[in-house]
Amino acid sequence: MANIMPIPTESCKVGFIGAGKMAESIARGVVSSGVLPASQVRTAHLGARRTVFESFGVKVYDQNSQVVQDSDVVIFSVKPQVVKDVVMQLRPLLSEKQLLVSVVAGVKLKDLQEWAGHSRFIRVMPNTPAAVGVAASVITLGDAATKEDGELISNLFGAIGKVWTAQEKLFDAITGLSASGPAYIFLAIEALADGGVAAGLPRELSLGLASQMVLGAASMATSTGKHPGQLKDDVASPGGTTIAGIHELEKAGFRGILMNAVVAAAKRSQELSKN
Prior knowledge:
By secondary structure, the chain is of the alpha/beta class. It folds into two domains: 9-171, Rossmann fold; 179-273, ProC C-terminal domain-like (ProC C-terminal domain-like fold, Orthogonal Bundle). It has twelve helices and eight strands. An eight-stranded mixed sheet has the order 3-2-1-4-5-6-7-8, sandwiched between helices. Helix 4 (83-90) runs parallel beside helix 5 (109-116) and helix 8 packs across helix 9 (203-223). 33% of the residues are buried. Its main location: cytoplasm. Its EC number is 1.5.1.2. It catalyses: L-proline + NAD(+) = (S)-1-pyrroline-5-carboxylate + NADH + 2 H(+); L-proline + NADP(+) = (S)-1-pyrroline-5-carboxylate + NADPH + 2 H(+).
């Protein structure tokens, strides 16, 4: 294997294979944060998505092959069922001078590396809050990816939220928690808002309060450094309203239900990754 040269961030050209919502979120974040100018970001599309990317300065080609030929970092952001065909089709154009990245759920590095013909690959698991710049992304490095490669990708994905590094064996559990987790919270917000309506609040006010309350609670959990149990205790005064509500949640097995949801989603991710 030839010596792998670091890719300078300031001159790095990033290409997206796939022009969907996740690619858009990452590209917008990278551009709006100033990590890269729009002139160094590119993708390919022939339909309506072309206009979306062009609207914030990204270069849009007609073919994926053109994106690969004009990129230092190639990010695969396509559906899991087509990623093998896409990577195999582009394989003749891929070189070890390029850093390859996958944000495709459930597809392992060993398969990606085999299809691409080299192992300078990084796998990333972001989540849908990338669309509003508060993603939780986890990265794991392939066999030939360097520390500098990891830092470059952490920098790029840091533009859309927070980034962690973990071993790939943890990715199914990460999928069950942070990738699927936003849906659990959306369900909770909807249920809390319904509770507000049941207690007499107008629908719009109830939904607004529920959404803002979840945002505020999450912000406290991430910024105060306190254990969530302590934050809960700080709200629940003796004989008060909050402990009465918590008592009902405990009777219904609230914490166990959430734990089971994460484990079930992780198990399903594991099943899908074997297909």
